[in-house]
User: Fold these one by one.
Assistant:
Number 1:
Amino acid sequence: MDLSLLRVELCVAVWIFVLLAADVFLAPAKKEGLSWLALAGIGIALVVSLQPLPIGPAPTGLFALDGVSHYFKPLFLATAAAVILMTQAFRPQMPQHPGPFYVLLFTSVLGALILSSIQDLILLFLGLELLTFSLYIMAAYLKTDGRSVEAGMKYLILGSVSSALLVYGIALLYGAVGDTSFAAIRAFLASGELTLAAQTGILLVLAGLGFKLAAVPFQLWLPDVYEGAPAPVVAFLAVGSKMAGAVALMRLLFLALAPIQPWWSPILASLSVLTLLYGNLGALGQRNLKRLLGYSSIGHAGYLLMGFAVGTLDSARAVAFYLLAYLVSTLAVFLIVCAATDELGGDDLDHYAGLSRRSPGLAAAFFIALLSLAGVPPLAGFVGKLLVLMSAVAADRLWLAGIGAVNVAISLYYYLMVVKRMYVDAPPSPSPVRVPAASLLALGALILLILGIGICQAPFLSRINLALIF
Amino acid sequence: MVTVTHYVVASAALFCIGLAGVMSRRNVLMILLCVELMLNAANLLFVAYSKAWGNLHGQMIVFFVITVAAAEVTVGLAIAILMMRQRNTLDADAVQSMKW
């Protein structure tokens, strides 16, 4: 057993105990410092995760530290760092005791880190549950706010049903194959015919992952949870949890289910179309910004599924790039939402009216981040969408690419409606919105990244091409 | 003679009962209980297949599933208590301050 493969996970796990101990021994007045302690832990793990990969034979067993996980682990940690900064900006709304919140954030990051390295269905189940359980509690963290508890309840009920589907699917696959490792499943699928039990099992496992990605028909929980849960938690749901689901699905499809690609490709393609249309059409009439972002995040899951449905190495790389672009844009949006919610008095679209006259800089950053989510050149989101659509065209899925392109236009409409509120409508009060310095710094860095990734993609693409080899 | 098929049928029946319960029951506690039924259906399947294949993978997974199920109920009950304090009901239909 080589513990150095687990170095990032061990860092995060040790820091969970450091945070717990600090929460116990710190005086209540000094608990504000916990967020900096949490940031320090993420920083250490980030440095460790950026160390070069050990050179050796292809890893086997439950857990692998390979190119894919090496690419995604720093992204999960960066997301966690941004979420911690968001909790600082969101402080007025948060309860007095921040300690357990950071511990839960760390356990859920641990789950995401594990998911990026899975080689076995057991670890898929455990990583997914570690990630999700922490999020149930975090979604309901504002104990006195009815909407937060409601969000936690809905997330818990639908989440536990989907995890039951996942476990049953794993059981059926185990029955068909006699083992749960990706390698054994791949060998089984390559040699024999696809039995009904194996098909059902794979479909149920895909359903469990579809819940994490928020793909139709497992998206029902998402708008309510996004609207009700605290904004920093929604940011982690939108980025960390979705990315973890996408990485797990990528590993499952390309490592275990590769031999039966002609079987799953049309299934994922039809789900992708439904998800795109549901998310983007649902977002059109929304009045709450977080709810609108929820529908838009369903739409983004559609693009991820499109990349998976195409099923080529190029499309997997396009998905990896898409996730990077989605990460920087979504985190920028949520940093603004978290910082502004308290001063604006809420997160309805009406609250954002005239933001450009109150805080021109903040409104401009919001503008750029939203356009990147919509996929406007020369921003990061544009390149992500372009790569996914091009990989679909290259694989002769013109109709899929066409539907994707139409959805870009639909999504542009509702993102621009938000922009219109900020720039055209009159503000309810002229006072500028104050944002903590650390959040402002992070926001600036994210906006620079949105522009940088969009204009100069080459270093990011070459990094992805080196990392993603199946 | 009880074969694997018998276990598969029994577990499928358990799973479907659980799923039907989740869909039809409105009380949060009953929904959690039905999810437990679905998880235990999977456990039964794991153990049966473990015997049939003659390896211990399935039995090992069962321990993980039991642990995870316990954690799930703990979180579920905690949130149910919060809901009870706020709304004085455990009816899932009452949880709709946001539109579905």
Number 2:
Amino acid sequence: MVDKSKIKVPKATPQDLTRLPIKMPKITIDHNKCTVPFWCKKCLQACPQLVFQCYCKHLEKLRESDPRQPGIYEVIAVRRDKCHVCNKCVEMCPENAITITLEEA
Amino acid sequence: MCHYCEMWGDGTIWYLNPRNYARHMYTLPKEAKPGATKAVGEADPAGYINLERAMVDALERGPEEYEKAMKFARDMVDMTQGSVGGWMGQVVPLRDAERMAEISNPLGLIACICRKAMLGIEERCPENMTCMGLGVGMLKWERWPERYKGGVHWLTIEETKQWLRDLDTKGFVHSLMMFGPRFIGGICNCDYPACDALTMRLDHGFNMLKGHHVAMVDYDLCNGCGICVQRCQFGALKMNVTLDKANIDQMRCFGCGLCETACPRKAISLKERIKIPSLQEVW
């Protein structure tokens, strides 16, 4: 096994730490309304900044998931710092599950 | 100097050393903490996505919190992937990717999980078959059919090289993936921002090392056609309008070699990073 304490590793921080904290919009997704996100995935396709990510919540050994079954997949807003509140996802969502709020500075 | 080459290179570039593709490297991490549920290399997009979300949330709370989140994310990547310092991949140019395909066996293509999560592209789409698996890791599709949904497309060495060249023509960045310490298990062909690994590197600064090369432009040969400019995923390549030539920022260059393979006049060449004094510690 490699002794990790002896290894020098490079560091890279593209985020400007002096600029933090930054304000970003709050995106909430109602998972009771949005049950089959990977079957619908309109928000994934609508977002120009790829804010949303959809993943298989129940990763099971020896089994494939069915995207049409409710509750298997879940969509979350990951890259919120990229969101510029164009509200395309809110308009596209057939279940009206997405809300975006931007606090005034 | 590349630390991986020092440790694992045996005198060559570490990813061209056949020992790093060996079966016995593919082991479970011994020091996995009780919270870990996934074995090494078991692709868990949920874990990655939640790490990224935690880091973005920390941006809202201030620099200390962000650094804490980054340290946690690095440790998590180390724990689940067996990497060091959160670096579990490295950008490789096309010619090295082709040499890697000669070393490893078996070779296969599976659907890209990042593009599935980011863009909602389903596994059965043929254009999503870009995740190239190297070595014995490909044989565990039976145990984790969810990750290998859409099937494994087994390839010979020549077919693999052809796929790599085709993906290169399309404009995908090649990068190797480590699954466990010094076990190279795949070549990812992706782009920003569809690739989770590249997105983590460019937004938060870990997960993917720069390659062993840097691209340089020969101004005598460059005629300013601009074909290379659209292929740079890292914002390193710009058009120098005054001179009407391509201009590469070597500090930003990841050495993926996409500009080199696109150049019709062979004006761009890849130089070794460790031979350039100011760049040899820029990874």
